[in-house]
Design brief:
about 775 residues, mainly beta, Jelly Rolls, Immunoglobulin-like, TIM Barrel, 5 domains, 8-stranded parallel barrel, 6-stranded antiparallel beta sheet, about 10% helix, globular
């Protein structure tokens, strides 16, 4: 099936026009502008305290939007089948071709396809129109974004073609000597007569060497479909794993009369998954504990807009911080995210829903669940089933029906539906403790858990041991955990074979659910932060991709990194005590710049993988403190502030084993830019992320010298976004300038599709400017 991008040159109108009854009558009138996809209008518009999205949606503007694109269809396509595929539209999408209504799609996270063929004007222009309605608030517990936020594709096929998502690849038998690859391919015949077809398959290695072939023949009845079921043998396969994510490509061709009429390339990996209570999770026969984190779908400063590079960068950040698994909470992710997980070796829990019939907001998925769950679940399963990174299907999160008979019945129906489509993987759901006035006994969830292959526990690690004693065959996984309980959760994983892993809430910070991880100064503050809070503030990594203190603590537990980290507690107003929310972390900062605080005593924590830590200030020792399990691997010191150098030395078996230094920065003198790549591709959707830092004359980042930085771009690109990790900033993510936060901010530059050079220039009053040049090839 021929696939053509439809991401360029859309006309967009925000809001309902007030001066015309039909928005489509005058698409060139005032209020319309040209945009490229992916597009999230909410990230572009001002945040306001009065916006209906409130704390949950980060106070962003939602509303309704209209998209239109002209498409010319040549006469040569008169015998073709033409479809359009939307990877994701948030939400309540309605699609027209000219005046013809084609379909609606309520769920904002499902990929859906619609046929255009019956309504095409061949040899002329056709208007593809999409209405997006995100005006009914609240419909989400986090920032959703608004619009056609994932790519759109035009699909062109012959009347005989492979069905949409009709190729399925599994690897039922795997060893290092030989692997059996099972392929199921569905061919559709939209001709008026039965047709003889041949289907040819080739498995190619990553270097394009053919390693297996097959050919079969069959008769496809008119207006019907035929499934081919083929086994191919691969000798000495290169197995897919998190350390060696080897990939293969299946080339499937459909032939009639000796001519190829359809071709599809399917990327897959050869690997074996096992879930065994007394052994845990086994990948290719080897036990593997899941170092996991939950992520939402947004891309930080880019909003919900899903570009291949933004999705890939998320995976790179997770891998660099030691994660080997991710839970897509609480909806199917972007296809590009799973592609990156396949390439880079990150395991995935692919999750469908945040609620079923019982809603958590007035306008969330519960409104359409009964009518749409099967279509939306099928979309996830059929779209994502060939990804080797996906190891578990999640059918829901913290379902309110979890301790009621009707909830058990729904769980059974969904789980069996999943197994009917993909029996090669296991089914899970994330379950938390009971609340409200319902039966609060934890074992009231036993019936629900019995429908699952792996029981997902949200924040319930204290139930692992007793549940195992009652139900020794139950497999468990910590599908959500609090950052402050990282030690307990990870120890439970290591000490129990039946606990497969732990997924912290969250690995990456996100927009919306504002301030759920903040430190309060008053215990009476509301659950979520009030305006201008708009970030969750609970991620190991902030929305720019910068590691936060809890990420360094997790490095200690996972034995990842240097083994030492200095965290200085932020001074609080006199008489105030910090109130850390359950998803929060102490207000600490790797900073030794506190002018005006000379002599004031600061609490300094050193996260340590060593048994003891000695802390020195300007060569003066504050003694050694134990940093063993009993101290939660944190050595604490009280240190009167004076400028200079803090040095932490870690000792194991009495000998120095690690060292880290934190210095007072000098006077801020200049900006420094660091691009995450030296070059990008000459395609219109490639991105480069540039970290901007304020540094002193020695090149040390000054964490307390925040300034407003102005950006300009020349050459073959444009400034796509700016941002920082300040949870209460009121600055726009779509401006030409941004303030640094703790010495840093981020600029994202987008290619315009032309080869050449991009030059990003940054300047700030009182500082030497900086510039970086990026090749576009």
């Amino acid at each position: 099936m021929y696939k053509l991008s439809l991401n360029s040159a859309w006309r967009f109108h925000f809001g309902d026009p007030k001066d015309q009854p039909n928005v489509w009558e005058k698409p060139g009138a005032d209020g319309w502008r040209v945009v490229d996809l992916p597009h999230d209008w909410s990230i572009e518009l001002p945040r306001q305290a009065t916006n209906p999205s409130g704390s949950a949606g980060g106070f962003f503007t939602m509303g309704r939007g209209y998209y239109e694109r002209l498409i010319d269809f040549p006469d040569a396509w008169h015998e073709k089948k033409v479809f359009v595929e939307f990877e994701g539209v948030y939400m309540n999408a309605e699609v027209w071709l000219d005046e013809h209504f084609l379909t609606r799609q309520p769920y904002g996270y499902s990929t859906f396809r619609v046929e255009l063929t019956p309504y095409l004007k061949l040899g002329g222009s056709n208007h593809l129109r999409v209405r997006v309605d995100n005006s009914t608030q609240l419909n989400s517990r986090w920032y959703s974004g608004s619009g056609i936020y994932r790519p759109v594709w035009l699909l062109l096929a012959e009347p005989i073609h492979l069905a949409h998502w009709g190729v399925s690849v599994t690897t039922p038998t795997v060893s290092t000597q030989e692997a059996l690859v099972n392929v199921r391919a569905v061919v559709e015949n939209e001709l008026a007569f039965t047709t003889e077809v041949a289907i040819q398959m080739q498995i190619l290695s990553a270097d394009d060497q053919i390693v297996a072939t097959s050919e079969e023949h069959g008769r496809v009845p008119r207006g019907n479909r035929l499934e081919f079921n083929t086994n191919l043998k691969v000798v000495a396969p290169r197995l897919w794993s998190i350390d060696r994510p080897n990939l293969y490509h299946l080339k499937t061709e459909v032939l009639t009369g000796g001519q190829v009429v359809d071709t599809e390339i399917t990327t897959f990996g050869i690997r074996n998954l096992e879930f065994i209570a007394d052994q845990g999770f086994l990948l290719n026969g080897q036990p593997l504990k899941l170092k996991g984190g939950c992520v939402h779908h947004d891309n930080g400063v880019m909003g919900a807009a899903s570009f291949p590079r933004s999705e890939e960068r998320k995976v790179e950040l997770l891998k660099a911080s030691g994660f080997n698994a991710v839970r897509c909470a609480h909806n199917p992710p972007a296809p590009a995210f799973l592609d990156a997980c396949d390439r880079l070796g990150l395991l995935v829990i692919d999750e469908a829903f945040d609620c079923w019939r019982d809603g958590k907001n007035f306008f969330d998925y519960h409104i359409v669940f009964d009518d749409w769950w099967q279509r939306d679940l099928d979309s996830m399963l059929l779209r994502d089933r060939n990804h080797p990174s996906v190891i578990l299907w999640g059918i829901g999160n913290e379902l309110l029906e979890r301790n009621r008979p009707e909830g058990v019945a729904i769980a059974h129906r969904l789980a069996e539906h999943v197994r009917g489509i993909d029996p090669s993987r296991s089914v899970t759901a994330a379950i938390c403790g009971n609340w409200n006035n319902e039966n609060k006994a934890w074992d009231a969830t036993d019936g629900f858990f019995a429908t699952l292959d792996v029981g997902g526990y949200n924040y319930m690690w204290k139930e692992y041991t007793s549940d195992h004693q009652r139900l020794p065959q139950r497999l468990m996984i910590g599908t959500e955990s609090f950052p402050l309980e990282a030690l307990e959760n990870w120890e439970a994983v290591l000490s129990h074979s039946y606990v497969l892993g732990d997924f912290v809430w969250t690995a990456l910070d996100y927009l919306g659910e504002s301030g759920i991880g903040r430190v309060k100064l008053d215990s009476q503050e509301p659950f979520l932060g009030e305006y201008p809070w708009h970030q969750a503030n609970c991620g190991d990594i902030d929305i720019c991709g910068f590691k936060r203190p809890q990420s360094y603590y997790r490095d200690i537990l996972w034995k990842n990194g240097s083994g030492l980290y200095i965290a200085v507690h932020y001074p609080l107003p006199e008489g105030k005590q910090p109130v850390i929310t359950e998803w929060g972390w102490p207000e600490v900062w790797s900073n030794w710049n506190w002018p005006g605080c000379e002599g004031k005593v600061f609490q300094v924590d050193v996260y340590s993988a060593c048994e003891q830590v000695e802390l020195l200030l300007n060569g003066r020792s504050f003694g050694r403190q134990s940093a063993t399990h009993a101290e939660r691997h944190i050595a604490r010191f009280d240190v009167p502030y004076e400028e200079g150098e803090l040095k932490a030395i870690g000792f194991s078996a009495g000998q120095p084993a690690a060292e880290v230094v934190l210095k007072t920065a000098g006077h801020a003198t200049q900006l420094r830019l660091a691009a995450d790549r030296a070059s990008i591709q000459a395609v219109a959707d490639d991105l480069i992320y540039v970290t901007t830092e304020i540094v002193d004359s020695e090149g040390q980042v000054h964490p307390a010298a925040d300034r407003r930085v102005s950006f300009s771009v020349t050459g073959a690109g444009e400034l796509a976004a700016v941002g920082n990790g300040n949870m209460i900033s009121e600055e726009s993510y779509r401006a030409q300038e941004r303030s640094t936060y703790r010495g840093r901010c981020l600029a994202v530059v987008k290619s315009n599709g032309q080869a050449g050079q991009i030059r990003l220039h940054a300047q700030s009053d009182g500082l030497s400017p900086a510039e970086v040049e990026i090749s576009v090839e």
